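#structure-requests
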Amino acid sequence: MRVIAVPVKALERSKSRLAPHLSPLERGALTLAMLEDVLDVAQAMPGWETWVVSPDEAVLEVAARRHARTVVEARPGLVAAVRQVEQVALSERAQALAVLSADLPLLTASALQAALRTLGPVVLGRSSREGTSLLLRRPPRAIPARFGPDSFRRHLELARARGLPVAVVDRPELAFDLDLPGDILTVLADARRGRTLEVCLGMDLGERLAAHA
C-alpha cells in the first residue's frame, strides 16, 4: 500500500495571513476549495490511497464525500498529525507515505505523478517559501517529519545525517502554496480551472485586493 496524506488544520485557524482581507468564513471556504483541488489530483494517482487528517468536521466531510479516507486528528499541530498518520500507515504495512500540502491550488496531475515516480527513500518538493510541499518517504519513517519554517533545509539535513539520498522535485505547480494576498492574484492570473479559482472569483477577490493595493 502507498499513501498520500493531506493534513488540514481547523478552518478557524486557516490562512491567518489573509485575515486583514478575508473574513474567517471566507478563509475557510478558500481552504476547502484548495483541498478539493488537491484531492482531484491526488485521487487521480493510480496505486495510491488518499488520506485526509484533520480535527475539523467540515474538512473531514468534504474528504469523505470525495471518497478519501478520513483520519480524525487526535492531537493539535501539524507534526502530531503527521506522526499519527505515520503510525496508521506503518500498522497497515504501507511501503510509502507522501505528505502533501493542502494549499497547492495550481497542482497538476503530471507534476504530482512525476514526484511520486521519483526513485529514492526520500523525495522532497520545495515550496516557494523554502518549506516542504511534498515529503515522500520509503518507508514511511525513513526520516522524521519536520514541517514548519525552513522545513526543506531541515529535511535535507535529516536525510544526510542518516546517509540517505534525497531527490528534489522542482516543479512550479508543486511549489506554489497560497498564503498571502498576492498569491490569490497569481491564482486569478493563472486562471487554472478548479474550485479555488471559482471561489476567488465568487468572492470578487481580484477587485477587493486591488482596492487595498
